[in-house]
Hints:
Layout: H1 23-46, H2 53-61, H3 65-80, H4 84-105, H5 108-119, H6 128-142, H7 150-180, E1 183-185, H8 196-208, E2 215-217, H9 221-230, H10 234-245, H11 260-276, H12 282-287, H13 295-326, H14 335-350, H15 354-357, H16 363-378, E3 380-384, E4 397-403, E5 409-416, E6 428-433, E7 436-438, E8 441-443, E9 446-450, H17 466-483, H18 504-510, H19 516-522, H20 534-542, H21 548-567, H22 576-584, H23 602-605, H24 615-633, H25 638-649, H26 657-665, H27 673-677, H28 681-688
Helix pairs in contact: 1-2, 1-3, 1-4, 2-6, 4-7, 5-6, 7-11, 9-14, 13-21, 13-28, 16-17, 16-19, 17-18, 18-24, 25-26
Amino acid sequence: MTNPLLELSTLPNFAPAFKKVKDDDYMPAIQAAIEQARANVEKIKSNKDAPSFENTIIALETASELLDTATSIFYNQLVANGSDGLQDLSEKIGPINSAFSNDILMDADLFARVKIVWDQKDDLDLTPEEWMVLDNAYQGFARNGALLDEKGQKRLREISEKLSVLSPQFANNATKSAEKFELILETEDQLAGLPDTIKEMAKFMAEEKGYEGKWLFTLDFPSVIPFLQYAEKRDLREKLWRAFASRGYAPNGEHQFDNRENVMEIVKLRHERAQLLGFDTHAEYVLSRRMAENSNNVMAFLEKMKSVYKPAAKKDLKMLQDFAKDQGFTDDLKPWDISFYSEKLKHKLFDYTEEDLRPYFPLQKVLDGTFEHFSKLFGLKFIPANDKYDIWHEDVRAYDVEDQDSGKFIGTLYADFFPRTGKKQGAWMTAYRTQGLYNGEIHRPVIAIVCNFSKPTPDTPSLLTHNEVLTLFHEMGHAVHGLLSDVTYQSVAGTSVKWDFVELPSQVQENWCDEIETLNLISGHYKTGEPMPKELADKIKKARNFMVGWSGLRQTGLGLLDMAWHSTAPSEIKNVEEFEDKVTADTSLFPRYAGPASCSFSHLFAGGYSAGYYSYKWAEVLDADAFEYFKEKGLYNKEVADKYKEHILSKGGTELPQILYERFRGRPADEDAVLRREGLLESKKENSS
């Protein structure tokens, strides 16, 4: 029998043949691909010619193409379409992959060849991209145990293999614990305050689960967020909020998906690995390869942000408390009241709610407008292509992306928009194959965006909130970063940049979503097609900085929590709850009323953001500064867009991000740009006086 994961796909752009792939294909494919990669590595080691950039570094770069293809399909499907079978496989495949990676990175003979090339780097005539590929290769070996003795390498292997199991376990627990919870409402009075669109969606979800005549609310974002914003029954808001905040947490054995032990073990293993490799902490290990460079710089940045956001957040909370009191609320405000009263206050101050916007954001209209937006900026054309490509679920859409002027093929894009069982919460962009050298030639990328938007019902199309529109622009920003990559080697293509730079192309796109010129592209009433009235669009812009202190303090607090987990000796941490409470005491304006956030913080413990969550705020500085340039010259100014495309999007990680950014902007980013955008410069001056 043939294995579709081991064959070169016959689909356009060598896109994955999802229809052919079965769960049983993954393990034999990955095992066979590892053997092929080992054989390729042996050829490199046995080469009698002197080590060179071509016969060692580039040969190594391309040695595991088949394995990279198989594992990218597996891990992308695990989070987008994860069955119990895939979850079980992840606990077996993780250690196998980890063992292979360690075998390569700890191979003394292979490293010796890499080091010979590295030592000659100043005498080689390398392009900036080639220098970065060489640097990444050498550092990849050094940072993964090549310089350790046999005992150290043995222990590092054990750590890597354990972590390869623990991270999928953490993600699975967070997902499964969320899926266990259902809030089933049986009477109309329990729905008081909820908009008709939300009630219709909840009724449809209940019918899908067999709960006839009832309404179902889950912990999926499109369900939980509007419930907390609009439901008048405070006890039900509290129940849903506590469940959401307690994902991955079961202190009394309520379920088997408790992540506390996983958190402690992951942190312990990361710390030990860092010390084995000569770093004081995991944070220092990570940050030595980031723009920020070290934890002192990150902490100084976060503390500066906190000094601005905390007093602003206190003002936001006081404003909300006073408003709630005026509304006749006599109890103390609790976390499950914040969204409810902030939505009411927003309506009072700006005369609109998220639900007023939703009818103007049917998904198809927003998507069409989003594509037009990227066409105006970068000359891209998105052509529906479900008839050409395989998809992994009926909800998925496939597109060919072309240059609208030349017709040149840019890449393949998949879009997966709706929640379902087995799919991770949140939204993300990923690559099934990055742009660059593949199968002996330079090929275009295969990119996907995965979201969890409000689902359509039999009577109503998917209607997005403005926050979901922001999410779409954010993930499409990442996608376009991947699609417009124009480099030679996959390891530095697209989003393969320093981690604290990767959010610039995504976050900068969110800025356009408040501008009338862009809103006219992406909005149209789902019944009449009429664009959003200018008066409503103006209100969105005026409300942009509503509760910005509150949200800024939250993001800063999560960044500080991340740094604390990865800068503290595990021996000093007694348990998850106590540690998180201590760390967040200065950034949380409420005590903890449910599980610790760490137990569902997948960015840290099942993603790539450990010691890197600060990068969201770090990138906000860059995106605010970059958008000021567009505002100054014109939202769709071709000169600025072309510079951004040339110096940021097309270059991937071929040079240091600060160099690329300064080429685009003509200077370093102004750290005050984000505070100017948020209207908080006065607060900054007050705090520095």
